Automatic annotation (TrEMBL):
The keyword Cell cycle does not apply. The lineage of its organism: Bacteria, Pseudomonadati, Planctomycetota, Candidatus Uabimicrobiia, Candidatus Uabimicrobiales. Pfam families: Methyltransf_11. This is Type 11 methyltransferase. Keywords: Methyltransferase, Transferase. Coiled coil: none annotated. GO terms for molecular function: S-adenosylmethionine-dependent methyltransferase activity. InterPro entries: Erg6_SMT_methyltransf (IPR050447), Methyltransf_11 (IPR013216), SAM-dependent_MTases_sf (IPR029063). Residues 73-171 form the Methyltransferase type domain.
Length: 281
């Protein structure tokens, strides 16, 4: 099947431009060819940055009780780090999609280099208007990608459509602690969100409602905020070091966001949650 042409809107254009301009920064974060573009998970056993980026995948898939051989859609796959990990770990077929063509190109060439072409495929697609038929996947894996959605109802409906009945929607992302935020703290939040092309953050409560209104049952919800704190600190420290580099305005705003995500976490404005939801008949 050929992917259909994608209609970009102002939000997807913003996201695409953001990732095109910040590729070097994410590359140095992930530290290899298929660089991870997400927070890392720390605990008593995992204490270094690179291991933490892999451990979070382990934690998410364990929380979901992921099974071998599942057909997975990695919705917002970056350059495929988690897609490759899932394919290897669970011997499963993974389709990764991203709105950013350069990421898809990179993921495809990594798949070729690593001999993972049979298990993985990558396409430029919008997770709000997927080209896949109904009931195509056992799992939709959305790791730090749905935060870019400006219409969560549409995003969740589309995930529901492409999932088989009984299939799992896995969302690991940042959520607002609550909506009652003093204006100066709102300013901090806006600095962070604008620079990372995040239009708005859901609260756990609003997200839960959207899921349950759209034919999902929430199976598990896990708060791993305390485990990602060192990763948030790492993002902050790197940004402080790089602040003086000459860059364009998108890159400057990105660096500021790297600083403000930590300030907002210190103010308890957001938390990191894993939601596991099942598609109902
Ligand atoms: C922070 S990165 C996370 C990438 C990957 N999940 C990971 O953990 O390494 C967010 C990803 O979501 C993708 N994305 C954002 N909005 C999207 C949309 N509407 N459709 C498809 N992908 C989207 C971005 O292009 C990017 O690849």
């Amino acid at each position: 099947m050929f992917p259909r042409a994608i209609e970009l809107n102002s939000q997807t254009i913003k996201v695409k431009k953001y990732y095109e301009n910040t590729d070097t920064s994410y590359q140095s974060w992930g530290n290899n060819n298929a660089y991870a573009m997400h927070y890392g998970y720390y605990d008593s056993k995992v204490q270094n940055h690179i291991d933490s980026l892999v451990e979070i995948n382990q934690q998410i898939s364990r929380t979901a009780k992921l099974k071998k051989g599942s057909k997975i859609l990695d919705a917002g796959c970056g350059v495929g780090a988690s897609s490759f990990w899932l394919a290897r770990q669970f011997s499963c077929k993974v389709t990764g999609i991203s709105i950013a063509d350069h990421q898809v190109r990179k993921a495809k060439s990594t798949a070729k280099r690593e001999g993972l072409q049979k298990l993985t495929e990558f396409q430029v697609q919008d997770f709000n208007q997927l080209s896949f038929p109904d009931n195509s996947f056992d799992v939709v894996w959305a790791q730090e990608s749905y935060c870019h959605s400006e219409n969560m109802t549409l995003t969740i409906k589309e995930a529901n459509r492409v999932l088989k009945v009984g299939g799992l929607l896995i969302v690991a992302d940042c959520f607002l602690v609550n909506n009652f935020i003093p204006s100066w703290q709102k300013m901090y939040l806006n600095f962070w969100m604008n620079g990372w092309a995040i239009p708005k953050l859901e609260t756990a409560g609003s997200f839960y409602k959207t899921l349950t209104k759209n034919n999902f049952r929430v199976e598990r919800k896990r708060d791993i905020t305390s485990n990602i704190i060192p990763s948030s600190q790492e993002i902050y420290s790197r940004a402080i070091e790089n602040q003086k580099e000459k860059r364009n305005h998108i890159q400057v705003q990105h660096t500021n966001s790297c600083i403000y995500q930590k300030k907002c976490l210190d103010l308890n404005l957001w938390k990191y949650l894993i939601f596991i939801s099942k598609k109902l008949p």
